[in-house]
Amino acid sequence: MNRKEKEQPTSMPLENIYVSPGVRESWSENRSAIVLSIAIVVVMLLVIAAGHTGA
């Protein structure tokens, strides 16, 4: 942790944002939507990879 803060001073605000309860609440509320979007992206990547291998 200390090394990351020394290397990247801009990482402190991001850590504070991630730790803030508001972000945790929004994450728990939108978790299903986030998982769905990730699944869509994974499926798209699989389709693209299959198309490249098929071609």
Please write out the topology.
Layout lengths: L1 H6 L3 H9 L1 H9 L1 H24 L1
Can you tell me about this structure?
The protein is mostly helical and 55 residues long. The chain has 4 helices and no strands. It is rod-shaped and about 45 Å long. It starts with a helix and ends with a helix.
Protein traits:
55 residues; mainly alpha; 87% helix
Give the topology string: H per helix, E per strand. Answer: HHHH
How many beta-strand elements?
0
Distance between the termini: 46 Å
Shape: rod-shaped
How many independent structural domains? Answer: 1
Q: Figure out the total of helices.
A: 4
Strand content: under 5%
Task: Summarize this structure briefly.
This protein has 55 residues and is an all-alpha fold.
